[in-house]
Design a protein that fits this description.
single chain, alpha+beta, Methylamine Dehydrogenase, Chain H, five-stranded antiparallel beta sheet, 6 helices, 30 strands, 30% strand
Length: 619
Amino acid sequence: MKGVPILSLSLAAGLLTAGGCASSSSSSASSSSTAPAPSYMSISPPSPDPRVGLGAGWMNAQEAIWNLRVVSKTPPSEKFINLSTPGDRRLVNSDLSFTGNYVFQGNYSGYQVWDIANPNRPTLRASYVCPGSQSDVSVFKNLLFVSGEATSGRLDCGLQGVTDTVSHERLRGIRIFDITDVGNPKYIANVQTCRGSHTHTVVTDPNDKANVYVYVSGSAQVRSSSELAGCSGGQPDQDPNTALFRIEVIKVPLAHPELAAIVSSPRIFQDLDAPVRHAESAADQAAAAARQAAAGRPAAARPGAAGRGGPTQCHDITVYPAIGLAGGACAGYGLLLDIRDVAHPKRVGAVADSNFSFWHSATFNNDGTKVLFSDEWGGGSQPRCRSTDKYEWGADAIFTLSDNKMAFKSYYKMPAVQTVNENCVAHNGTLIPIPGRDVMVQSWYQGGISVFDWTDASHPKEIAYFDRGPMDATKFVDAGYWSSYWYNGYIVGSEIARGLDLFELTPSAFLSQNEIDAAKSVRFEYFNAQEQPKLIWPASFALARSYVDQLGRNQGLSASRLTTVSRDLDRAEKLLGSERRAVLEGVSAELGREAGAASDGAKVRLLSGAIRDLAAVQR
């Protein structure tokens, strides 16, 4: 399928313009003045943006924060810190995965396991040194999966590396650990692949409880067939079994994970045309040309449509089993995959965008009506948030989704200008379970963490952030947030050079305490960002009140009616049993009758349903 290039859309970085929360008015004979609202309740972000011009430092850089609270900052453990060379690529923290109270933090040299039962003071449970790059991690039940791609990675996790061009001691693929005893993981198996595993995705099949599957995205050069039989880097017309243009699907028997093996190699991006890509900025082109000239080499060709075809690999795949779809970020394309047959995913849609350079990852909204793709232009090690960089470059692209067709709506990019010494581009994030809204937290490397609302796909807006100054004010040093994910009430960030950070959302004009409490009511037994779970909110007064707050914020129901509903909820909460149930059922029924005439009838129906569900749990 040929992807259709998308026209550029210029978005202003302006934020929310809707009215604030409704409030009752009152008069007083003694005073006509009104106290000003607290600054954190303003719909206008701080100006000038405090993220611009922050002072540099490793563990002591200046910080800027808005509508978030720092819960804890934990430096890397002893085996994963380089005191002499901060930012050393060998000791780069990478992706995160979660189970119970544990956070698994990947690292180019292995992984660390943190216990966050006390989020104010995470404690180290394990530090497993096993070099391989980039060591992306995922968990399922008692199993941990770790990606390995570097040619120096060894089967035995040795530190000596692999120097031979062909070696049967090399590991490029997936490592499997038994984490029944989290503090003492056991390396039980590996599955070798022709291009290694840059990233991977654990996929559960609702019709197959005996196995779990792993989609492997490899982006390195194809290894020699002398090292791994069957590997070929030829074009499909030369070798129909080429390792190009495909992913690998690994089947892992849960009763015998040591028998894990590749069961299919779907060519999900074969036959795509080469996408048109934007050139570097004029200044960057001139700088690159100067470097080439100094080295005595000809200038590099400008990017364009020339070439033998589209991408030969995916960077990352996000699956959403509840809707039977996956989003594949495949270098030059964003793909939509049908995963109802988990072992044999099929491409059903593809989009390209001349403003995008390297499609990196995907996120669906909870009801599956939108998908967001990120662009990791520069591979994560370049400054792409400078004043000279276009808003559309290194950003997110938001699409609506209907009948497996993706329609472009807008871009979102962290709006604060960063320096030439700060790697900054869109990277890993997840949904935050705010009921009735699409809210996401996302990493931007040394651009920090940005929380934004994309409920209106055409007008995404930032609602919270955290940022540090660069590692070094005089030169580039690799750092910043690789991943920022919501897990059981907290935003957990993997900072490449500085460790593990936890944050909490705070109430603001964009987000009420009830919405935050409702989000915290959603709990996971385990969580991998690349396998999105369907978010389901348990019945609670916070859930009902979150819809009341949203209706007040968007004036979806009259202020006087919302005041009455709030009063009824307060009264019901003080009652017990049948009395509480009767009040809640009455409020729900009345709202149901009013929904058709309300300016936001859909949200009124959500409120009615939340109150009805709350009544049903009162016994």
